Amino acid sequence: MITLATVSPCYNEEEVLRHSVERLSALFQRMIADNLISEDSLMVFVNDGSRDRTWDIITQLHSENRFVRGINLARNVGHQNAIMAGMMTARDWADAVITIDADLQDDIECIPQMVQRFHEGYDIVYGVKVSRQADPFMKRLTAEAFYKLQGSMGVEGIANHADFRLMSRRSLDMLATYPEHNLYLRGLIPLIGLRSTTVDDVISERYAGSSKYTVRKMLKLAINGITAFSVKPMHAIFYLGIVFLLIALGIAVYVAHAWVVGTAVPGWSSLILSIWLVGGFVLISLGVLGIYIGNIYVEVKRRPLYHIQEILE
């Protein structure tokens, strides 16, 4: 039997915490009875600077439920950093760690399957979404588009996998050696290279409340997921520059022809169009370069990813 820890980042999740702990506790009891995990197994909730009563509820649940432990971060550091804080802390308490969002939209019945795969010798087990009917249509559409874009950019990852996964202590120790500050765990963890597999994950609707992962946060994660692992956007700028050069040559031929045959008409349309076209290309190019320079700026400062204010053990 292994000691298992689940790690759940929490940001303003007061509406779902008690329900989630009840479901996970029942699952833990069943897995203990089936000799899959030890009685020392635990569920770790990471409070990521919540503004509601999330930490108060975690503290109360810790006093009521022997499985519950809590980590209170000093400030909001974001979903990926909160997961990292939970994993790096929990690896000292458990043989394997499963990360799962506090709303439990991921299928918790996959957890016993993940533990079985761990017993079979796999260090990393990914939960892959085989059904997203509970997600809004636009979220499903944009997610599929992002995974395809990510693949075309050469980013190594698992399609339709978010952050629901099992990692052994050995794989967590290896992850700890990566000094990344622009964290994108979905792309970083496959780089570890240890033996891995997948289980099917069916997404369900939230028990209460709404997702705290806003469109702005998802867009930021998507941009970081590409720029932190691929330089193809910078290569694309070079190729676009060649395209614009060819367009300019075509315009030059057209102007020369119009001048020779006497059909040239003075006007501002072509001039304005060219200015806007080239200007837009220049601004986009500067924006892409700015993202990469900004990421370098963040990395070289070497600031800590998070500060832990309190741990409930």
Explain what the structure shows:
The protein has 313 residues and is of the alpha/beta class. It has ten helices and eight strands. It has helices spanning 17-33, 54-64, 79-90, 110-119, 137-152, 169-175, 185-188, 215-227, 232-261, 269-301; strands spanning 4-10, 42-47, 68-73, 96-99, 124-131, 161-168, 196-202, 308-312. It has an eight-stranded mixed β-sheet with strand order 7-5-6-4-1-2-3-8, sandwiched between helices. The protein is elongated. 32% of the residues are buried.
Instruction: Trace the largest sheet across and list its strands.
Output: 7-5-6-4-1-2-3-8
Task: List how many beta strands DSSP finds.
Answer: 8
Global morphology: elongated
Rg from Cα: 25 Å
* Fraction of helical residues: 40-55%
What is the assembly state of the chains in this entry?
single chain
Mean pLDDT: 83
The structural class is alpha/beta
Poorly predicted ranges: none
Main sheet makeup: 8 strands, mixed
Approximate strand percentage: 15-25%
Distance between the termini: 21 Å
SSE string, helices as H and strands as E = EHEHEHEHEHEHHEHHHE
Number of helices: 10
